[in-house]
Give the backbone structure.
Amino acid sequence: MGVVLAALVIGGAYLKFTPVAPTPVPPRQTYIAPIEPVVKVQVPDKVPTKAVPLPEEPVSGERVASTATVELAPGVTATTEMIQAVPNASAGFKAFVAGVKISGVYQGKPPRAFINGRLFRTGEMVDDLQEIYFDSIDGATRSLVFKDARGATVSRRY
């Protein structure tokens, strides 16, 4: 029994300390993607738009119901009939309010609304070009009130 035990110990030591030849590993092949030409196109900062002078409307403090039609793309128009506007609001102001997308309204403190995909609080400027501000929320009529730099107001139901 002692001889068998000694043979196992010596055989295990022999296997443990005998160097093993490494298995050959095939060399790595690297993939090189073909080089494609890069085309650089200059994109203008702003798309030129045709400036059309808007007619001025008579000044009055009485609110009137009106409709507004906005051309979204050539041949595509949107008409909104639920606009309460002061007659001295410009046609561009009314068209902007008719075309805004209102996706959420919070009537808490401070009142907030998602307008054209952005969150606005009361008093913040919604449109820089025409200087249109988000003025307030009228909970009784479920409408948002917008004001421009001249003081004209337009409301739109949400």
Notes: The radius of gyration is 37 Å.
